[in-house]
Amino acid sequence: MIAFILRRVFQSVIVLLIVGLVAFSMFRFVGDPIENMLGQERTQADVDRLRTQLGLDQPFIVQYLKFLGNAAQGNFGVSYRQGRPVATILAERAPATLELAAVSGTLAVLVGIGMGVFTAIRRNGVASNVIMSLSLVGVSLPTFLIGILLIYLFSVELDLLPSFGRGDTVMVGGWSTGFLTKSGLLALILPSITLGLYQMTLIMRLVRSEMLEVLRQDYIRFARARGLPERVVNFRHALKNTLVPVITVTGLQVGSIIAFAIITETVFQWPGVGLLFINAIQFVDIPVMAAYLMLISVMFVAINLIVDLLYFAIDPRLRIDGRH
Q1: 266 lies in a domain?
Q2: How many domains does the chain fold into?
Q3: Which residue from 45, 112, 125, 291 puts its CA 20 to 30 A from 275's CA?
Q4: Measuring CA to CA, which residue among 241, 226, 218, 223 is closest to residue 120?
Q5: Helix boundaries (H) for 165-272
Q6: pLDDT of 89-105, one tens digit each?
Q7: Burial class, 267, CB count within 10 angstroms (exposed 0-12 / middle 13-18 / buried 19+)
Q8: Among 96, 67, 150, 111, which Cα is nearest to 274's?
């Protein structure tokens, strides 16, 4: 088990190094930040002095290695646009994105698995057919369109929920949260549904498909023949074996919630790191863009590691194989 964890951590470090290299290579072609930082009255001397100050006159590999060394110490440089440390800016924006992702992920996993089990057990029922038909909306429509439709219905027509912003927040330690205010909770509803709807429907359809496959297995028929209650058969035997393949997709989808938050945050003007990244692209703020991509990469790698460890907890066959 320890050898497996060490091997996965080593692989994760290699992935992060490659992602950082690719990101830095791409950012060389998005534009020159000097053009946005200096006004029209700039001189060539001003350009050269600022380029040297920012280290942009150094070779690419030197810039990349310096970034990695600083990032390992939690230092992502200074934002070209705001003139403040990137780590400070991310710390201010991260609570909004993490809270949105947490609510969306919880909604997607709990509702997705619950409806998947329900539609599998009651596969011929009217409610199951209606749910499966409505799930096509979440799978087919793009995220930004779902967000616009929800804003039009619940904000414009019904005037029930706010259409943009995070609402009122309070500071708890160094964390700004909207969970403790009414406007903050109301502001979370539409963006969290928008962000989690695709993942929820995907998880639901996957759970239903796997559940139907498991319910056809011989050991399920044998469990019913023994007279076990239907609840025990469905949830203790069938659902547990269904979750093994579902965990992989669910883990990746939860990770993608943070990455796809860019679209949702743009539609709802949610003050998170996704909207910060969009603004950084417009102003060629390379330190912010690099730090954002590294942050997303770390989250994906951590989620994949957690998913691999969950395999050992759920499937005893993997624990037996791991001893050899």
Answers
A1: yes
A2: 1
A3: 112
A4: 241
A5: 182-215, 218-225, 230-232, 239-268
A6: 988 888 999 899 889 98
A7: buried
A8: 96
Residues 6+ apart with CB under 8 A from 231: none
* pLDDT tens-place string over residues 274-289: 888 888 887 778 788 8
What proportion of the chain, given as a percentage, has pLDDT over 90?
Answer: 11
What distance in Å separates the CA atoms of residue 285 and residue 82, rounded to the nearest whole number? 9
Residue 189's domain comprises 91-208+253-273
Determine the angle formed by the axes of helices 239-268 and 86-121, rounding to 10 degrees.
130
19 assigned to some structural domain: no
β-bridge mates for residue 171, sequence order: 176
Residue 177 domain-assigned? Answer: yes
pLDDT of 152: 93
Residue corresponding to tokens 């990137």: 86
131-147 confidence digits (pLDDT tens): 888 888 777 888 889 99
The DSSP result for 82-138, as a single string, is T-SBHHHHHHHHHHHHHHHHHHHHHHHHHHHHHHHHHHHHTTTSHHHHHHHHHHHHH
User: The pTM is what?
Assistant: 0.78
Token pair in block for residue 214: 């498991």
Residues 173-185 have pLDDT tens digits of 888 898 989 999 9
- Which residues does 36 contact at the CB level (< 8 Å), separation at least 6? 80, 81, 283, 284
Residue 209's identity, in one-letter code, is: S
Write down the mean pLDDT value for the chain: 81
pLDDT at res. 324: 43
Question: What is the token pair recorded at 68?
Answer: 């990695």
Position 203 pLDDT exceeds 80: yes
What confidence score (pLDDT) does residue 155 get?
A: 92
Calpha distance 261→254 (Å, rounded): 11
Helix axes 239-268, 286-314, angle to 10 degrees: 160
Residue 248 lies in a domain: no
**Which spans in 57-85 are helix H?**
60-72
